[in-house]
Amino acid sequence: MKSRAWAELLPKVQQRLLPLKPIVERLFAKNLVIDVLEGDISDVSERGYPWGGPAVYVPWMRTLAMTDEIVLGSFEWYGTYRGDVHELGHAVWYLLLGTLERWVTLNSMYAKAKREGRLLDHYSGLKIEEWFAQGFEAFWTKDRDEHGINWCRDDLRRVDPDLLQYMADLARRHGADPADLM
Ligand SMILES: [Zn+2]
């Protein structure tokens, strides 16, 4: 089911994304579409999305697609995987950040973090978009689990306090309360 406004989201999706509501509303104002694939779907490519996985953000469609399993927190391959939040981070990168913020401010933060070995994981080192999305997901996550990709805010604080500070400022700038955690 495709939604183009907070009020159109299914209650279970609203509940899932509640701490991020002000940010999600800003994204909707930039024409984001959130597509929740209901039913027995394990991979968004089963419904024609160009990449696999349980959640994806497609920049040229301005669409965040996710499976029901993600929304309900029942996706089990990677523990408490928050792929929807990671992908929402990609939407923020593309829709809410200006060119200078991405390619000057954040690019120099990313270069510094890499130089100093302050990355959450290997995936964050692949490219700046993944570093940003992993940091975004970690920032909003309360607890981590034993799987090596599910970081939480304490991990971000320990590994990259500069990025933590940036994410807190970003939240405030878009009307979200950094005290809220998922
Ligand atoms: Zn990603």
Q: Keyphrases for this structure?
A:
182 residues, alpha+beta, Collagenase (Catalytic Domain), binds zinc ion
Q: How would you characterize the overall build of this protein?
A:
This protein has a single domain (2-173), classed as Collagenase (Catalytic Domain) (3-Layer(aba) Sandwich). The protein is globular and about 45 Å long. The chain has a 4-stranded mixed sheet. The model has no long low-confidence stretch (mean pLDDT 92). The chain has 182 residues and is of the alpha+beta class. The protein has 8 helices and 4 strands, in the order βααβββαααααα. It binds zinc ion. Residues 86, 90, 130, 133 line the site of zinc ion.
User: What order do the helices and strands follow?
Assistant: EHHEEEHHHHHH
Detail the poorly predicted runs: none
Task: Give the number of helices.
Answer: 8
Order of strands across the main sheet: 1-2-4-3
Bound molecule kinds, no repeats: zinc ion
Subunit organisation of the chains: single chain
Structural class, from secondary structure content?
A: alpha+beta
Question: Which architecture name does CATH use?
Answer: 3-Layer(aba) Sandwich
The CATH class: Alpha Beta
Compute the average pLDDT: 92
Work out the count of structural domains.
1
Taken as a percent bin, the fraction of beta residues is 5-15%
Number of strands: 4
Helix content: 40-55%
Largest sheet: 4 strands, mixed
CATH topology: Collagenase (Catalytic Domain)
